[in-house]
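Data deposition worksheet. Section B asks for the primary sequence of the deposited chain exactly as it was used as input, without tags or linkers unless they were present during the calculation. Section C holds the resulting structure in C-alpha cell form. Section D is free text for depositor observations; keep each observation to a single sentence. Incomplete worksheets are returned to the depositor.
Section A, Depositor: J.P.
Section B:
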Amino acid sequence: MTTKIIILDDHQLFREGVKRILEFEDSFEVVAEGDDGTEAIRLAEEYNPDVIIMDINMPNMNGVEATHELVEKFPNSRVIILSIHDDENYVTHALKTGATGYLLKEMDADALIEAVKVVAEGGSYLHPKITHNLVKEYRRLSIDETASTSQYVPKVDIRRPLHLLTRRECEVLQMLADGKSNRGIGESLFISEKTVKNHVSNILQKMNVNDRTQAVVVAIKNGWVEVR
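Section C:
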C-alpha cells in the first residue's frame, strides 16, 4: 500500500532533498510540494495525503497554524513537523495543535523514513533529542512539585524491569531515555542498527506501548530509567 506524502518548506533545496530521501522507499509517493501553510491546506484538499511533512517557519501561515486547520479539515491526514527548533515550547505547541510527529532537520535519512512509516501506520514519533528534552522537563516538574510540599526530595531508586525486559533491552531503554538515536545506541553497544530496531520493537511490544516516547514516559513513571 502506497503512502501519499506532501512536503511543505519554503526552502526548495531542502524540499528536494527530503523528497529524494523518501522516494528511496518503494511504498512512499511524494504527490505534491509547497512553500507555505496556506498552500498546505489547498494541496491537502486536492491530494488527500496520508502524511504531511511541514516546517514551522513558513510565510503567510506557519506550520503550527496550518497543522491546527489541517487536523480539523482532514482528520485522516497525519502531520509531521520537521524543524530546526528543539525548544520545548515549539514542540508542545505543535503537538497540542495535532501534529503526530516532531522531527529535527539534523536527523539522518533512515530515521526520517522510519518516522514517516510509524506515523503513517497511526503511531507518533519524536526525534530522540526531543524525547530526551521532554523527559528532563517532566523530571524537573516532578521534583519541583515534590520540593514544594517537602524540604526533602528523595533520591529515585532505579529498578530495572528485568521481570519484563532482558538486560540488553533495559540498556536500550535507558539509552532511549538518554535521547540516543538508533545509530547512537548501536555505536554505544557495538551492535548494528537493525539489531537496535529489533530491540526497540521488542521493548514496545513487551511494554504494550505504541512508540519510543510512550516507552520512556512509562519507564520514568516506574523508576526504570535514570534521567540524566
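Section D:
The beta strands are 3-8, 28-34, 51-54, 78-83, 101-104, 125-126.
The longest helix spans residues 128-149.
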